[in-house]
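Table S2 (text version). Query chain:
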Amino acid sequence: MPIDVASYLKFTPTDDTGSFAADTEGAIYYDDSESLLKHYDGSGWQKVSRNLTWGVTPGYGPYTVDAYTSLLIHSDTSDGSTTFVDSSANGHTATGQNGVHHETDQKKVGATSIEFESSNDYIEVPYNANICEFTGDFTWDWWLYLTSHQTVSFLANHDGGSTNGWLLHHMSNGRPTFYFQEEGGGEWDSKATTKALDLNVWMHCAVVRSGTQLLWFVDGVLIDEFDFYTGSIHPNDSRPFWINWDASPTWTGYMDEIRVSNGIARWTENFTVY
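Corresponding structure-token output:
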């Protein structure tokens, strides 16, 4: 029998901006601005795919929290908001500094992303071992939109003037480098990626420690794999956990869906992003 397509679409456009009269659960529409089919899940418009997993596949929607999620900042709020919420079960206090805010101009998941646009924009979370100390596997991942290649630490528990800690540094050549101190205040080591990050495009970045390997993924593709130190990464318990930290960074861009996972290697081979 013929299919009544209109009964499946379930929407009535109200204007040409993507606004619809009936935000009813199950409704679907094609978002021309993002070239994506979306459905309304009862709380918001989400991307449609038969092959991806809600809350798990990067970019397919906000991550869901599991037992390994130590920190999760979604950035799905109002334009200009300066409130940063840790959605993990830990509920860490995250405080923006020097004007860092949520912005609708660029976003990957949800209504906003976090914009870093001026000198020394950063987010600070008080020290806690579950986001600063890593004794085994871990995964750090986030969505990134770079507009320049400048020196800054995407994630850090070190301020350059103290002896302990670690930092995931973005170099002026566009290549991230992971600096860390070995357990017990031992020597420093570093692992530099071989590929510069692209500019002016959203990309998913993931740093994964899996056993004796350190893996670097961009958009689900394994870019670099390093033999890695097997002991604990030594934290600095006198310093916070920082996002986008440097003494005077000039890096500009956006971050979205920032997640720290402690005790799990979420990916060990190429994976799908959305």
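Notes on Table S2: Residues 38 and 47 are 4 Å apart (CA to CA). The first strand starts at residue 28 and ends at 31.
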